Amino acid sequence: MSTSKNCNDNSCSLPDIANEPHSGPNSPLNWVGMSEIEMPIFLTNGKQERIQSVARVQAYVNLTDPDSKGIHMSRLYIAVDEILSNDTLTPALLRKVVESFAESHQGISDCAYLECRVNFFERRKSLISDNTGWKSYKIRPIISLRHGKLSTELSVEVPYSSTCPCSAALARDIIQQGFKTQFDAQETLDYNAVHDWLGTTTGISATPHSQRSVAQVRVKLNESVDNLPISRLIDQIEEALQTPVQAAVKREDEQEFARLNAANLMFCEDAARRLQAALAQDNTLDDFWIRVNHMESLHPHNAVAVVVKGIENGYRDDPREFPQ
User: Fold this and answer.
1) Which residues contact 139 (CB under 8 A, 6 or more apart)?
2) What is the CATH number for 294?
3) Range of lowest pLDDT (3-12, 27-36, 70-79)
4) What is the tens place of the pLDDT at every residue in 52-67?
5) 8 lies in some domain
């Protein structure tokens, strides 16, 4: 394999095993590179503020030459270090990194891949009170260069609460039965007596079960998108579901959270359809893949629904978490 000479006298005199003839089974390789590269990065939040975080990076190129011994992994690391860690993460910056991967491996590679796993922190307002609190979201900016074609993606995990509609109906039935037992013998109802009874544990004798849930959303960004829409995508998801988990909570916030859960009863199918309807209206998204996970409090297993945008040659309807 041919490589460019860009070294001082000491480095050029050192042995380079990657340039030696390859012996053994010969075949091209789909991907070769590194994972779990720890790297500081810069992101932009919803207020257009620049924030720093730490990413775990995956960097790969393919190996098209079956006779080549391997790639130069140090070139991938240096590109990540010199490009990715010194400027705000944007589609253009991600593009610059993978193009550098491909350029540094001309002749043996024609595809490149970059992924950053990041905990994105952002202050979020409480539901009713004037408080705010930090919330963390797992995100993954991803870019791939495959045979000259670039694809930029963004994945995010958003936790929320889901209350079972079936359980809510059964709880209401028990409350109705209790009301009938308590007041059936009375010819006329006393407003204050009913009001006071509803405020007791006897009055509300059953509650529906809720569970913490997670929406995993992966979107393919249109080429016209200049910035990673992290905050906007989180907003779209939380507004569609209406029951995002909270950070700073006072009693009035908790009461509003209970009201929102009652007003937004959801099976996993309901949550998936809400998100599909919301994202389908966004013309900056060429495609999307959605998986909602309801960590059941009734069962020891989870309830899951998966939906994709459904365009031709788009994301597969794959039930696995974040299919590649």
Assistant:
1) 117, 118, 119, 120, 154, 155, 156, 157, 230
2) 3.10.270.10
3) 3-12
4) 999 999 999 999 988 8
5) no
Residues 160 and 304 in one domain: yes
* Mean pLDDT value of segment 248-268: 96
Whether residues 43 and 192 share a domain: the answer is no
Tell whether 52 and 82 lie within a shared domain. yes
Residue 4 falls inside a structural domain: no
108, burial (CB in 10 Å: exposed 0-12, middle 13-18, buried 19+) = buried
Over residues 96-138, the pLDDT tens digits come to 999 999 999 999 999 999 999 999 999 999 999 999 999 999 9
At which residue do the structure tokens 């960004």 appear?
A: 221
9 located within any domain: no
Residue 1 has pLDDT above 50, yes or no: no
